[in-house]
Amino acid sequence: MEDGHVRIIRPKSAFLGWGLREIWDYRELFFFFVWKELKIRYRQAAFGVGWAVIQPLVTTVIFTVIFGRMAGIPSEGVPYQVFVYPTLMLWTYFSNAITISSMSLVQNSNLLSKVYFPRLLLPLSGCLVGLVDYLIASIILIAMMIYYHVTLTFSIFLTVVPLAMTVLLAAGLGSWLSALYVRYRDVQYAIPFFTQLMLFVSPIIYPLSIVTGTSKDILATVNPLSGIMTTQRTLVLGNASIDWYLLGISTLATLVVFILGISYFKHHERRMADVI
Fold first, then answer.
1. Of 183, 188, 204, 233, which is most buried with the most CB atoms under 10 A?
2. pTM as predicted
3. Residue 118 sits in which domain range?
């Protein structure tokens, strides 16, 4: 510059250094990123939003044939299709959110190197895209329960709680993985393996009641989706009481993952434009 001074733009100090006020100031850009991801997701897709129905339904049929009929896994007194579907909805959302969030920085590398905005907007916006699919899947769930004569109870409206917890968990993991992906391209190969592993250690195809003793506590701590999915299934079916102890462990683990993931992202945010 002519006067010999250089202007350095730094985020304002805030709680935990997250810059929440700055994120709120850029809320219009945040929703633009969400809309852009939605258009990219369904652009030139033959079935469009139909994939939000096809993916969980086909998976449910496969799980029902293999695990419900052939393996004879118990389904707590309800048709196996209805037993699997509520947790499969959460899983589908979670896996898609992790994938979109983790790739968000690299896919928008041209923006990172040219203009300033809170980088956290990108992975967080990726966590909202899948909510459209979840809403469509919820309509299918209600139709499925009516078809199989499973009683609909008021508690089904409380499923927003496990959904919100899943969003927090996906935001924490997605932010952490997106920051890692900027430095290490191996992340793109690790994510499919990670999500596939999480599929089988989450109580989707089996009830968590078959896991006993301290193994259940360890599973809920290592995999917060365990308590979240069990609560989701309980609220939907309304045939059991909520395991508050298990839900408490998963809630604490989710908050820890969220805080650590966002903190790691903010710590490495300054160098992202140079590394990417």
1. 233
2. 0.86
3. 21-275
